[in-house]
Amino acid sequence: MKKITLLLFLFVFQHITYSQVISDKVSVEFKNANLQTVIQNIEQSSYFKFYFDEKWFETDSTIISKQFKEVRIAEVLDEVLQNTSFNFYISGNKIILTNNSVIYNQLPDDYFGIPLEKDENGVAIAPVFYQQYDSLKRTNTRNPNKNTKEIIAIGKEVKNQKKETYTLSGYVRGGKNKEVLSNILVKIAGTKFATTTDKNGYYKLQVPPGMSMVETETFSYDKVTKKIMVYNDGTLNFTLIDNVNQLDEVLVKTNKNKNAKAAITGVTTIDTEGIKNVPLVLGERDILKVALTLPGIKTAGEGSSGYNVRGGKEDQNLFLLDHAVLYNPSHFFGFFTALNPYTTKKVDIYKGSIPAEFGGRLSSVFDITSKTGNFDKFQGEGGIGPATSNLMISTPIIKGKSSLIIGGRASYSDWILKSLDDEKLKNSQASFYDLIIRYNHKINANNDIESTLYYSKDKFSVSSDSLYKYSNRLATLKWNHSFNEKNKGSLIFTNSEYKFNIDYQTEGMNSFDFGYKINETQASVKMAYLFNEKHKFSYGISSKLYAIDPGYLNPKNPESTLIPIDVEKEKGLESAVYIGDNFKINDKLLLDLGLRYSSFAALGKSTQRIYEQNLPISDATVIETKTYANNEIIKKYGGFEPRIAVRYFLTADFSVRASYDKTYQYIHLLSNNTTQSPTDIWKLSDLNVKPESAQQFSLGFYKNLKNDELELSLEGYYKNSKNILDYKVGADLLLNENIETELLQGQGKAYGIEVLLKKQEGRLNGWLGYTYSRSLIKLNSQFNEEKVNDGKYFASNFDKPHDFSAVLNYRFTKRYSFSSNFIYQTGRPITYPIGKYDYGNAQYTVYSDRNKFRIPDYYRLDIGINIEGNHKIKKLAHSFWNISVYNVLGRNNPYSVFFVTDKGQIKAYKTSIFAIPIPSITYNFKF
């Protein structure tokens, strides 16, 4: 009996002692510890034992710094596991961790068919159970006959969750370079839930809880299907594989997401992979030349380096290469674009509604994006043509984390000049090269950096005494950071420089060296905030510093009669802040609202003339010369730039869009030529030169036909401008220290209608485009010397009312296709001599009003045959041949018309660039 009593006493004592020792409170401290270390520390400082799978922690990057003193273990775990996918279940001193799901100690009410309890909003409250989906068919996208058991858990389950849908988001990448992919359809199979990726490859999709199949759809990449178990909001990224059996049928495409859903008007995306079939001069694959076949985008003439968008001047277009300004996007007098086609991914052209993040130009933005290098393996691509050769190589630096892509291009076109009949041209030379390097590095899941270096150089000599050289240089550095699923941002630094030089050599003493340079440095912050399904905000701030060397002339011979000239340098600071909201009111109505405020300050060191008011600006009206110290503000300008766009669906495939934009431009291109020239100079606004401004109204209708096989768009616009720069007759622009005495500033207006019909699928694909537009300018003043054409509106140098283009491709088989390209344009305006008179023993010519007449109309037909290599996956290199004929009709299109007085008679002459058919053959390869 005593033994039994003693044993009973020992059992009760041990139980009481054990109960007293076991406490649900712990005291622990963590400093920059990972989750596994946190769990180990809790085990060491308490009697709790954790059970989990160590593999779960391999991908978890949570870092914890916390201190707890006598805090209940449940509260400690709630806090340290708050931002993870882990849940926990406590049973005595045992703690079981689960990934995503919750352990329930009782079944839900409806587990045996009893209706669920609902909350105050009528939403059923229920956990997610795997056994509900045991009968779900398991498939594999690469091999439908092969089963897969992989189920991806999304989000962290929370007890008593009350949502009918959760948010699934992520990025879609693809191709050999693992680049972000836009316009990829992401959907939940068998449901109405679907969306498309934006320009950054990002998607956001509402999904139901429980098991689902999420799929991607696109023509260019294999379909991917993933089985997901949705517990809560979460992320899921996709990596797509090229569909090697799908050839490029869509040559140029308007961004599908923007065309069908977005509010902005007048935006077009051109993909380099889709333009290889378009026949162009000398077989060069040229993304910007293809842009000229689209409505609203023109050039003053064949071989012109400038672009005129919706009636705007050449300097009113903002060319951005990976966020940095590219001042001269042309090579070889404008025949080629200064972009390597094998390193360029795409260009987004905004010619209607310009997003609030862009500014500084009146007419358009050409946002050019380079390709991202391959993170996994070495690859390359190139082309050999009659005038140029290209090569691009891509390689991982740290496999899976960083990549490098290098592209180079060079010309060997001197043989073309030497083969011409003109002896003067035989002694000429013309060549160019460009180099681009892009580096991408993934730091972690929330941070990555990208950097681009670019350099191009041209040199040409049309005669034996002068050598012209010009170059572009730019550098960008961008840091992308994801704060969370809703907040993302980028910090961007860029630098751009453009300069030209003329080396004049003569047998006499008057040889000289003449040059010009512009440099700009910019820093900007761009943010994106997904507030909710209705509001997507973007906002940011930027500032750039201009430094311009307007020109210098240095005689090479000390005994030269030439006087050295060094025009005073210019400096200015342009800044802006913006905010935008993509506001989805309902499924039919979408608003894109933007507000941008820009400012500009002209800075010293500088000497500025002050002219007498109410008198023409000339040397005779100067009343004061004022000197400004270094960085002293000379003059400040600024203003608000509202951007408003709206889209409304009339039917499921028929939408109407309208927009209003206001823009300011603080920098101007000065040129005596009808078309842009490499020796044109940029001028900043200052005390006597005002910034330009414009307002544009756009209205468009967009209709998809034959199950989206055809896309039809009709857009109209009206634009009025102020302080548009022009020049007095006989203006002297180069090395002019008082350039404002040669300038005129007036009003401009442009309007037009653009029609585009595209067929993106089938054997026959391509597009037809037509534009009727006018571009007019008015230079009026109370003084006759500052008035042109009696102060009335007259046609600008690039006014071409009618513009028609047809780009068609017919595919005979998967490897053989035929392409054609036809362009018709009204001849550009010109000023003709209409008479002559004698005065003081001299004869003078009388000219018509400025731009009253026109040169003959322009039309051209190009054809090409395209031959694909076989499409075997395991192959050393994939090839593509292009055999084309440029100007197959041999049309002698006039480039310019000029007049010469010969023996008392005025004779008219015209020049043409390509007056005969130009055949070419180009070999492209990819490995």
From TrEMBL:
The keyword Membrane applies. Its main location: membrane. Signal peptide: none annotated. GO terms for molecular function: siderophore uptake transmembrane transporter activity. InterPro entries: Beta-barrel_TonB, Beta-barrel_TonB_sf, CarboxyPept-like_regulatory, Plug_dom, Plug_dom_sf, TonB-dep_rcpt-like. One of its GO terms (cellular component) is cell outer membrane. Residues 440-888 form the TonB-dependent receptor-like beta-barrel domain. One of its GO terms (biological process) is siderophore transmembrane transport. Keywords: Cell outer membrane, Membrane, Receptor, Signal, TonB box, Transmembrane, Transmembrane beta strand, Transport. It holds the Pfam family TonB_dep_Rec_b-barrel. SUPFAM superfamilies: Carboxypeptidase regulatory domain-like (SSF49464), Porins (SSF56935). It is found in: Cell outer membrane. Residues 268-361 form the TonB-dependent receptor plug domain. It comes from the Bacteria. PANTHER family: HEMOGLOBIN AND HEMOGLOBIN-HAPTOGLOBIN-BINDING PROTEIN 1-RELATED (PTHR30069:SF29), TONB-DEPENDENT OUTER MEMBRANE RECEPTOR (PTHR30069). Belongs to the TonB-dependent receptor family. This is TonB-dependent receptor. It comes from Flavobacterium hydrophilum.
